[in-house]
Amino acid sequence: MILEGTVTNVTNFGAFVDIGVHQDGLVHISALSDKFVKDPHEVVSAGQIVKVKVLEVDKERKRIALTMRLDDPLPTETGARPSRSGPTSAESNKRKKDFAAAAQNKRQTGTMAALFEQALKNKN
């Protein structure tokens, strides 16, 4: 989908463009022009109206990937980009529980704990 938007912010890694939805989209520095871009400020400036193509919408991470290279094929035309999303909530919770259990186990069997336990036994 090709849209018209307004550049809201220019950073070292690209430009954020307001395309009329709740979240601004990012045009990465590599997608600003067909030519090499050393500094995004040379290509765009805040307040400038630009035409962009939507490359990807990541609802979970609330990110919109845009390009100003309108002739570029969409990722689905050349093969979808691999998902960069992190672990699911269930996987994340399992990792946290595993970490907590390992930390608890380490506390129980650590060197200081063993020495303390031995000292208590020797005291009695």
Q: Could you explain how this protein is built, in words?
A:
This protein has two domains: 77 residues, Nucleic acid-binding proteins (OB fold (Dihydrolipoamide Acetyltransferase, E2P)), CATH 2.40.50; 35 residues. The model has no long low-confidence stretch (mean pLDDT 79). The chain is elongated, with a radius of gyration of 25 Å. The termini are far apart. It is α+β, with helices and mostly antiparallel strands. A hairpin with a 4-residue loop joins strand 4 and strand 5.
What Rg is obtained from the alpha carbons, in whole angstroms? 25 Å
General form? elongated
In this structure, how is the largest beta sheet organized? Answer: 5 strands, mixed, barrel
Structural class: alpha+beta
CATH topology of the largest domain: OB fold (Dihydrolipoamide Acetyltransferase, E2P)
Number of strands: 5
If you average the pLDDT, what whole number results?
79
The CATH architecture of the largest domain is Beta Barrel
Low-pLDDT stretches: none
CATH superfamily of the largest domain: Nucleic acid-binding proteins
- Helix percent reads 25-40%
Walk across the major sheet and give the strand order. 1-2-3-5-4
What descriptive keywords fit this protein?
single chain; 124 residues; alpha+beta; OB fold (Dihydrolipoamide Acetyltransferase, E2P); 2 domains; 5-stranded mixed barrel; 3 helices; 27% strand
